[in-house]
Fold these 4 entries.
Entry 1:
Amino acid sequence: MKKFKNLFKLIYKTLVNNIFFILYGKIYLTKNNNVKIKETNNSKIKKINQKNYKIYIIKNGRVCTDGVEQVAYITGNSLIKNISYTQIKGTLVSANKNFVLKRGTPYFKKKINGIVLSLAQGASGNKNYFHWMFDILPKIKIVLSYFSIKEIDYFYMPALQNFQIRILNILGVKKFKIIDSNKFKHIQATKILVPEHPWYNKNKIFDQVDKLPTWIVKWLRSSFLEKGKSNSKNKKFFIDRSETKNKHCQLINNDKIKKILLKKGFKAIKVGKYNFVNQITLFNNADIIIGPHGAAFTNLIFCKPNTKVIEIKPINRPNNYKTISKINNLKYKQIITSLIPVKKRINGDMYLNPKKLKNLLRND
């Protein structure tokens, strides 16, 4: 029965792909003729290697995304390999492995009359707060360093959440139209603008994320810090990550650690319960912040210089928050936890020895 189902799925998939091949044609890796390239010319916006960013302008171009890992940019029936985002199981690979070369563009096409800024890059740029702040917003900044907001008719990206709308409004991007890339996975537009990724261009994302360009931290800080408010009530915070739906970077003894820190005058906070402005306020007024590795630490960009930070991190997680702390002149320390066997990850994947935490606080 299982073999019959698998055979049926294969026949169905092949049939669907053939229909879309007929509708939109096969995609090839050939020379791209309808692509212009502009470079940013701003001394404050540079790659980690100090080179300028490129912005690709595709006339009558197409975008096709699987909504998870890959995005294909197409002119005519040619894949633009320099910017097509080809990720397989978390690793960037050659464009010759992009899904459209094998499957074509297997979604009905929506035609757009206007200029579209494409911010599609797979699931990481959707709901994740860190990737929104360090991937998507810098892409907008890169494009707006060359084009005015009035020249852009649409943003191509997943439908915005409330916190994202609020952040864009603060940046002055108030009048925008979103083409939901999850709903419309294949579009064609008069012009498509595609900026380079601000920092991720090879290998696994964990291999690159601790090499964040300094300009992003400074720009985000200068853009939003003034929205925070003065707050003298509490200066010591423990980030309680038990609120997250993700199971990684969870302390299996979270309640025990929280109890220890509460006795020492810390306030436990679930950062996701606070709106964007209140998150700025919390981190900017803090004297010391302790918590597990996670997107809440993105807000370290708003901390005052010399704020004490203790990050509890599994051995296999990247050092992006250490990088942010260094750029922002914070007093950063790490507690590295060993990996817990998968079978024992009932309430989390990290165990923090309470004695280790007490000793660190005593010696701090």
Entry 2:
Amino acid sequence: MRNLPATDRPPIVVAKYGGSSLATPEHIRTVADTLAAERVDGAQRVVVVSAMGDTTDELLALAGRVSDGPDARELDLLLSTGEQISAALLVMALHGLGVEAVSLTGPQAGIRTDGLHGRARITGVEPERIQLELDAGRIAVVAGFQGSTGAEIATLGRGGSDTSAVALAIAMGAVRCEIFTDVDGVYSADPRLVPQARQLPEIGFEEMLELAHQGANVLQARSVELAWVHGLELAVRQTGGDGPGTTIREIDMMENRQKVRGIATDDGLAKVTLLDLGDRPGMAASVFAPLAEAGIPVDGIVQNVGREGTADLSFIVLDTDLARTESLLRRLLPELGARDLAVAGGLAKVSIVGAGIHSAPGYPARMFAALGEAGVNIEMIMTSDIRITCVIDEKHLQAAAQALHLAFQLEQA
């Protein structure tokens, strides 16, 4: 990314407002009031916005009504309009308050991406246009979730506005990057599932990245990864709230290496198992290469110990991808030499996350005991250095989250 040279310009603050913060015209006016009041600190402001409320889902549904398989390029062009609407409306509200502001699409803001429509990655930021607007005394309101590859618009995937904000903050040398949402920070668990969940004043990049990967929807995982690489502190705060929120930064974990920091949950999953798959070199590639080509993400790959030249291979996909996955693999069964394919939908993941828990031998037993006492059966188990994940029946997700939150005493500071 091209960082602008240091000058005697005022400090730059980047703020991102999510869809829930912009869901209605009234919400947009509230954000405009906040931005107008903040002008007294003298900082230059870049505001990144998501689409209003459920606009993205509504646009996806609209596309589905006219086409069973919308072209990826055309879908990106359609979906990018949601954020552009938010940006234009917020600027109109600011103008109504006498505040100079300008709306910019992702491409106009200099966000460059690769050509993977629907899941593009940012390849660079050219922020000169934004800086010109800031130097002219305007707030730059940027449509998140999008950039350009050549002359084409490409979107960054769900939660991509978070990554837009982080990338702009890094490129412009911002003094801080704030993510505003409908909750007042990162919690020890999803408060909708665990009412006793506690707001965390701070959390390390590593733990936040794992929470995001395992289903915590506060931040897109890629945005956390990007901020971590560049050492950019993030603040997650509630729109309109006056609390400090949660700071995400590099933390010396020497005293907390064996402490569970949070419970992550994710639902809408399915398990796929290839039975008696040939146990020979290259077979796993023969399974996952076609899935990758079809754009089907997989998680939690588990292969049992081979027996008599065969092994069972299981993995997790989204429920929404299950039909495509099953259809694709059943066509490949003769080529793969597998005896059969077993699928099961309606699953979820529940994870304990904390730096260093892998080196604490009592934590797995404690987790499994808590789930057992809650009557929750475990379908699969996956681990990393800082998390233990169990795949369970979706209907037991709330009971599992509450049991683990209690077992690891996360309601305590």
Entry 3:
Amino acid sequence: MPTSVTTELPSEAVSLLSGDASPARLGTVIPVLTVDAAGFPHVALLSPGEILVVTPGAVRLAVDQRSTTARNIEERRSVTLVLVEPKLCCYAKGLGRLTDVVIPPGPVQPFPAVRVDVEVREVRLDEELGAWISTGALYGREVSQAEELAYWERVQTALRSP
């Protein structure tokens, strides 16, 4: 099936990025792309614990406050989330805005993070007849599952704040 275009994230993406600190989501990598000063894509890798779908058309991210990603969003606003998971392949394009919400460093996150509000403008669902994604990108971390989930809970609390 060809690529389809919509303005809202599909239910599978909403579920993945619902803010539920589920052990089943640990290790999932979500690439987030911004545009650098030279016009090239810049990639940041986030976890589902660092992203929250507020509505199917609005997403919040936690990114390193000092990062190139934060600077790119501040200067150019373009943000693309790439969700490549079993049975789901979609690209959500939107406009981001840095907020005043800062998440202080912690044991798993050794840097201050800033909340980014993203207004979703376009979602492309990519499918090919007779083929599917069998696994997404995965990460590991040298902390316990409990420490990782506690980090996610701390970040999600900040992402949910007004």
Entry 4:
Amino acid sequence: MSEEQSMIKLCGLWKNQAKDGKVYYSGGLSYSTNLLLFPNKYKEKGDKNPDLILYISKKEKKKKESESTEDPDNSDVPF
């Protein structure tokens, strides 16, 4: 069995740039989670710390436009 046949693909990652200019990679692992891959900012030349750190985070639910404009207590209903 080749190395490629023994690997399991989890997701694709896209290159992004944070507001501070630092590069990171992100991609959806499932409908509710994201993977985030960052360079290890504490890595020093010659040490045995990892080069990259992988995080998993919950995806934030996007509000529908109708949800954000509705009055939740219906105080403007005339009856």
